[in-house]
Structure formats: C-alpha cells, structure tokens
Amino acid sequence: MIKNNINYILENIAGIKQKNGIDYDINLVAVTKNFPAEDVLEAYNCGITLFGENRIQEADIKYNSDILKEKKLELHIIGHLQRNKAKTAVKIASMIQSIDKIETLDSVERHCSLINKKIDYLLEINTSNESQKMGVFPEETDKIVEEILKKDYKFCNIRGVMTVGPLCEDQAEIRKSFRNLKNIFEKLNKYFQKKDFDIISMGMSGDYPIAIEEGGNLIRIGTGIFGKR
Ligand SMILES: *Cc1c(COP(=O)(O)O)cnc(C)c1O
Fold it and tell me: How far does CA 207 lie from the centroid of its chain?
C-alpha cells in the first residue's frame, strides 16, 4: 500500500514537472506523524530518505527506535517548535522548517553550539493571514530578516521558506497563498544573497500539484503516502 502510494505520487510529480517545463528537482518529505516506525521503515525501503515530524517527543522515540536508528535518513521538524524542545530537536533533525520567532532560533543556536552541530532552517510564513496559524505574517518578514542578519548565527543556516496553505477547498485561495510564498522567497533571496538559499517548502497531500505549479520545490506528504491518520 505505502509502496503503491509512493509510486503514484512520484509519477504524479514527474507528470506535473513535465507539463510545466520544470527542470529542477522537486523533493519529497514523507510526513510520519501518528504513524509507527514500521511504516517509516516501509517507506525507507521504497527509497524515501527524507521524513518529517511535527512533535519532538514522538519523533525522538520513533527515530531512535531499534528499527530506525541505524538507517541513513534525514528528519525535518515541520511543526511548531517550543523553545524547551529545542535541545531534542537539534539532536534528531537536519532541518527545522517551522521557525517563526527569533527567540526559538536563539535557542536552537545555543543547543547547536553545545554539541557543535550545524542545522538548516526555513522561515515559516503565514501566507494566508489566518490568525490561528503559525508563522511570520508576510508584513513582518522584513523585521525578522533584519534581526537574523544582525545576529549572524554560526550554527543555524537559513535555507528558505515554508508555508501551510489555507485549509479550504478554494483552489484560487490556495494558489494565492503559494504565490505569496514564492514572492516572499524572491524578496528574501535578495537579502541573503547566498547560493544555498534555495528551498520553497509548500504543498501537502491535498494541494501539492498547485504548490509545484507555483514554484515549490519541497513538498510534505503524509496522508497521501501513509493513509488517513
Ligand atoms: C501533517 C502535515 C503535513 C502533511 O499533511 P497531509 O495532508 O497528511 O499530507 C505537511 N505539513 C505539515 C506542517 C503538517 O503538519
């Protein structure tokens, strides 16, 4: 089942790329929240090496379990990160996609420095301006970027931006939100001026085709691979 789902999604991505003349890689994060280590292993055995988790404690237990701990896989934190979880997050992840506060970043930097580990991160942007959602509001991105530049972090390396599209069925709204993220990416790219500022993380099971059409290059799929939670 997981294998069929992965094949279906990979073929779909290839089709969308071809139709839109996209010549860069679209990378896939398999989102494993609420699914057991056995399912992660099954996806891994199908060639998936990049995984995403929302909750730090769940991720720590799952990815340090006997069946996964020796595997060559990468873990991204994609859910809201509380500062008191930064220590564990730094230990288990190669990237934190959901940074939306300078205080969280300070905390991540500190824990990275303690174990001398570099970590990548994305700024999460609230592109649909929904008040209940996480992420930096688009009009506040300049401010947080200025702070980041001033801090000159040694361990935390910004790689791009991430958003969760609006949780609605309205395709136009979803597209607007993704287009918004692409524009913010272009703007921030001018600030940072570095080659590895290259990730636009958007699109989930329900809306990844739109995300790819709008320039996303990292998509995060849970349900589409593992089934309903
Ligand atoms: C759960 C989750 C996903 C995956 O969602 P699906 O609809 O199951 O594909 C992607 N991104 C974030 C931030 C999530 O929390």
Answer: 15
**58 and 75 in contact (C-beta within 8 Å)?**
no
Ligand 1 lined by 227 (C-beta under 6 Å): no
Distance CA 185, CA 188 (A): 5
Site to substitute for ligand 1 among 48, 78, 168, most atoms within 8 A of C-beta: 78
In short, whether 219's Cβ falls inside 6 Å of ligand 1 is no
pLDDT digits (tens, 9 = 90+) for 7-58: 999 999 999 999 999 999 999 999 999 999 999 999 999 999 999 999 999 9
CB 40 within 8 A of CB 58: no
Domain ranges (residues) in the chain: 2-226
* Structure-token match 């990275």, residue found: 112
220 lines ligand 1 (CB under 6 A): yes
Entry pTM: 0.97
Tell me which architecture the domain covering 2-226 has in CATH: Alpha-Beta Barrel (3.20)
Q: With a 6 A CB cut-off, is 224 part of the ligand 1 pocket?
A: yes
C-alpha distances in angstroms, 17 versus 12, 70, 174, 179, 208? 9, 33, 19, 17, 12
CA distance 80 to 172: 26
Q: Which two tokens stand for residue 92?
A: 């288990």
